[in-house]
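sry for the spam today, last one i promise. struct tokens for design, 208 residues
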């Protein structure tokens, strides 16, 4: 079984910190799985693995991020045998569809604007700039397709394979919620100071 040992309590700027261990049922054998896990992001199961964040820190985002200070950590995948086997540095938020299908926002250390990335288990692709985490809205579908909003026109797009061309679905989208079967989505639209909520037929591309 797995268990956590608290190392530090939460503070106004950081989540609580724990080490994660695995032990035999009699407690005689124990092994450290991962150190310095942050409670800010929790555990995200995905397929036979799960993702979590370690080594939380405060960094200033560059480029059009304008130097805003935000929380990031190292995103780690833990395999079915409770062993870390993949990591991504300086991640502020993420969502996973499976062991090998991940959307995440990364804050570079070289002063460039933070960006949204899609990872398919082998390669990754930068989808575009996301200056502030508050501007990000993304969702992974059960099919593995990635849905996300990017750009000054707030375009909702969909991407299947990493090498595909993203399909633009709707502009002026502030938030969206995808239905599980990927036939429809609920969109919150913002245009000229006016907000409206519509349904989008993802097959026809028409508002309903």
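last one done:
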């Amino acid at each position: 079984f797995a268990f956590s040992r608290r190392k530090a309590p939460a503070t106004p700027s950081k989540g609580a910190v724990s080490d994660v261990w695995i032990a035999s049922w009699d407690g005689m054998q124990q092994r450290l799985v991962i150190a310095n896990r942050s409670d800010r992001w929790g555990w995200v199961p995905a397929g036979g693995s799960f993702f979590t964040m370690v080594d939380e820190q405060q960094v200033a985002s560059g480029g059009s991020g304008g130097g805003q200070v935000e929380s990031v950590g190292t995103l780690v995948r833990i395999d079915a045998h409770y062993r870390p086997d993949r990591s991504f540095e300086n991640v502020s938020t993420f969502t996973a569809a499976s062991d090998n299908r991940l959307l995440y926002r990364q804050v570079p250390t070289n002063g460039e604007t933070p960006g949204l990335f899609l990872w398919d288990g082998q390669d990754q692709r930068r989808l575009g700039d996301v200056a502030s985490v508050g501007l990000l809205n993304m969702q992974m579908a059960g099919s593995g397709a990635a849905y996300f909003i990017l750009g000054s026109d707030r375009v909702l797009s969909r991407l299947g394979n990493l090498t595909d061309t993203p399909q633009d679905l709707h502009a002026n989208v502030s938030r969206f919620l995808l239905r599980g079967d990927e036939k429809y989505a609920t969109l919150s639209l913002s245009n000229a100071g006016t907000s409206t909520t519509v349904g989008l037929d993802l097959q026809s591309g028409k508002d309903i």
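The chain is about 0% helix and 60% strand. ok im logging off now
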